[in-house]
Task: structure prediction
Amino acid sequence: MDVSSLSALPPNPRVLVVRLSAIGDLVFALPAVKSLKDARPDAVIDWLVEDKHAALLRSCPFVNEVLIYPRSTLTLFSLFAHLKSLRARGDYHVIFDFQSNSKSAMQLLALKSKHKFGFARGTAKEGAHLFHDHHVSITPRMPRAQRDVELVRAAYSEVVLPQSVKWETDVNVDGGGLTLLHTTTTKYGRDKDWGADNWVALASGLTADGHDVALLHTPADLVYVQKIADAAKVDLAPSTPSLEHLMSLLDNSKLLVSTDSGPAHIAALRGNDVVCLFGATDPQIYAPPGGDNVQVIYGGDSNTPPPKRQRNRQSLLMTKIAVDEVIAKCSI
Result:
C-alpha cells in the first residue's frame, strides 16, 4: 500500500483508531477521524477506548464499532483476555495511534497491521514510537485538534479538518436557553480550579445581566455545586446521567462557561457557544476545537505557556482571571 494516500486502500478498508482517554482528548481526535471518514466514506472505522469514556462514542455515526479497554476493572487475567481478543480481530489496513504512550503501545503489541501511524519521538511518550511503522512530527504548541489531523494527513494529505462535529442523540434534555456554568474540576486537575467565590460572583453578575443561569452537577460534586447555587441564588441544571444527556443539554442551552474540561470541549465540538477559562493548561494547545463559537480567557500572556503543572493546587494564573472579564465575554 502507498501510505501517502488512503485512495490506495482496497474497498471497505479496516481502520482502527487508538485513543483511550480522556474525554477532552477524545474530542480532539474526533474531527480527525471525521475527516478520515469524509475522505473514505467506505472505511470501516473501529475505535479502541477505555471503558469509562466509551459512552461518548457509542452513538457516533462514523464509528462502526467501539472496542473497550477494561481499564476500570483491569486484572492480569482480564488484560490477557483483552489483548487476546484484539489479536483475534485480524489485520487492520491502517491503525492510527492518537494516544502514543505506553498504554496505547501495549495495545499495539497485540494488534495486527503493516501500517501503524503514531507520533514521532518527543511527542510520543514512554517509548511508544518504537511500536509505530510511520512517525509524524509536529511543531511546538500545535493545537491538539490540528495535531491529530496531521496524523491522518500522513496517510492521506487531502483530508480537511471540520470545524465542528455533531450528531443526533437518542435523548432530549430541555436546556431552555440556559447559561450553564461548569464549576468543578477533577481530582487530577485541581490546578484548573477558579474558586467558589468567583463562580458565585459570576453567577450573580450574569443573572443581573439577564442570563438564566444554572449549574452543571454530578452526584459526586453535588454538595459543592449546591453551595455555589445557594450562595448565588441560582438553580441547578437538569440532571445529565449520561454523556448523551449532557450533549443534549449543551445543544439546547444558550452558553457554557467552564474551565478547560470535558464538557467545554464537547460543547465546542458540537458548535455550541463556550467561554473557556485557562491558567493551568496552555490555551494555544488545548483550547476547545471550534471557531467563533469559542471564547478563550487566559490568565497569562498569550505568547508564553503556563509553568509546569502542579495538579494538586490552584494555578496562580487561574487567580488572575477577573469575574468582570468573564461577564464581558458572555455578552459577545
In short: The longest helix spans residues 23-39.
